[in-house]
Amino acid sequence: MGKLVVTSTPHIRSEETTKGIMLDVLVALAPAAFMGVLRFGFRSAAVIAVCLASCAAAEFLFEKITKKPVTTGDLSALVTGLLLAMNLPPGVPLWVPAVGGFFAIIIVKQLFGGLGQNFMNPALAARAFLQASYPDKMSAWLLPGKGAFLADAVSGATPLSTLKYNAEGFYPQAGDYMDALFGRIGGSIGETCSLALIFGGAYLLLRRVITWRIPVAYIATFMALSGVLGRDGLFTGYPVYETLLGGVMLGAFFMATDYSSSPVSNGGKIIMGIGCGVLTFIIRRFGGYPEGVCYAILIMNLFTPIIDRFSRPRVFGTGKGGFADV
Amino acid sequence: MKTLTFSGGVHPPDFKGATETERIKVISPNAGDEFTYPMSQHIGAPCAPVVKKGDDVAVGQKIGEAVGLISAPVHSSVSGVVKSISDVITPTGVKSQAIVIECDGENREHQSLNNGRGFEGASRAELVEIIKEAGVVGLGGAGFPAHVKLNPPADKRIDTIILNAAECEPYLTTDYRVLLEETDVLIEGLRILLTMHTDARGVIAVEDNKRDAIELIKGKIKDEPRMTVAALKTKYPQGAEKQLIYACAGREVPSGKLPMDVRCIVHNADTVIAVQRAVVRGRPLMRRIVTLSGGAIKNPGNYKVRIGMKLADLVNLTGGLRSEPRKIISGGPMMGAALFSMDVPIIKTSSAFLFFTEEEAKLPEERPCIRCARCVERCPMKLYPFELNQYAVRGEYELFKKRNGEDCIECGVCSYVCPAKRHLAQSIRSARGDSLRRK
After folding, report:
1. Domain of residue B379, residue span
2. Which ipTM score applies to this complex?
3. What's the whole-model pTM score?
């Protein structure tokens, strides 16, 4: 008989792998990415391609130079790349996403220890960095061409800035809701078509890549606040409309759920979601930017270690009560 | 019916199909076969041999005497001659002194056998003595001497006796076959335990994927007011002692305490059968039921085997191997130990032997933790395995202990679910062992 393999327990493992999870995220983002290209033209396809390429290249080069095992095969750099692209305006000059990709992978991810060690969502941190460094380039919003395919996207305002700065006499109509659902509005490449994002989020839940806690707590909190504390006084808000706009769906399902920068316990995830919802609302309503998702999640990323510390479940068998008369 | 369970756990594929419909087959020893009886087949002090080389022994004769309070005697399961007394490695990886007997194939029974008795009206002390003398230990895998568990200190009142037939480990089907084929013996065994603990109710705990067994037992215990069947959710590790007590009685065994501290006793199904045989039929523990499975064994099934038989002999008697195994596991795939060779005896705690092919034995490569929290979500003890893994790897034993690493039940759920395939359970078990030894 040949040599027997002797290993520790357990002797069977689940089928799930890191690469499989990353692939699921890419698949879940595909509909929103496709809609971005459909609405804003091949221009946005180029942005997506640059993001993917720069993230993969940054990871490969960093690991080669520092003589670490090359991990581009686990697809996590591509997830960061695609998420970054989803958060960029379609009209951005192509060197900007390239800078963003390198920043996300090298500064935010690799310098802190690589996969699983980043304390902030790399794609969002890169977006914030680009926003601060190149504010003019980062507001190259386009309006999708009405009815036309791929072609005549023109620059224009997003509905969120309309709500914030020109809300006088604006009441969202059925058509506005439909535009937000199907992505016939201005915004970042991957955030405008809420329907595609909801499909993607449902896919992640179905595949158990994420649990419901962060997205549900996030969306519910945000809806409640924006409904009750409306822009024109109590109960004058449009909670559904506001939730369909900007990056709430993208943030709730894809960004706030980033494993390394969100809490690990079930209770902690609920707190994370509520925190994101509150901060998104505050920034949108009272902050200097029309959009609050990016900074809300980044701030909550910083709170994650503290949330983790205080949201530990009670270890089995360590209850105080126990048995009255034992 | 309400399905009982605990929080956490996983649903691995059960791999029970190959053996669950196979009736238990009796394997008879051949003249000339060597039987090996390690003196350490249980938790506690090893036995002292009471026979010597050249002695003639009979079936059921005591060959190892219990030493100390927590120990259990060992009996010969064949008649024959003592060939040697030497050190062997048991399937659990322990080095132990062992008595080797060459079977003469005559099955001469020792005169101490078959003096069974009725148990109605017997005192607990009498029954404990019989069970102790019969060498009965927990046959689920741990091998804790049964008489010790059944005889808690006077201040510990027992109100629930749980018969553990959850059998949550994949591949294993012995408990299931016992439930179906030895139902009456099992119920009588539980009746004996209830005689010893007059305040207790008996709960037969079965996972709800064994519906036929649940219905069968329900019918048989209609007239047993003190017995119930608990249908448990099919989930691993449903049969882990603490999780089982929580599911059946709603009580948490406090950290560092025993089931009796929450008024419970848990015994495996086959153990209860051993108790019945000891008391009613006057036969010591000499045989056990073993699942043989995995892709490399020719005839997967459940076999009634005499303890002491060599694994290699058992495999030959069941028809041999289908292909060369790459890994042999003693026990289930989640908690069982991998063997170095087939040259080990079947001992009291050998519930199964799995013969894995190259394909089945393949384990994925370890990658960095992605903090996905699956281990946190699934841990039945509500620990943070990914964090304990870091403490274990870095040797931070203070933190390991502070974060309740010693409460780990080593069920392997964390390693099973980990998408990065980290050796969580392995590292935690090793650190836990070090931590407990330092006490």
Report:
1. 374-437
2. 0.91
3. 0.92
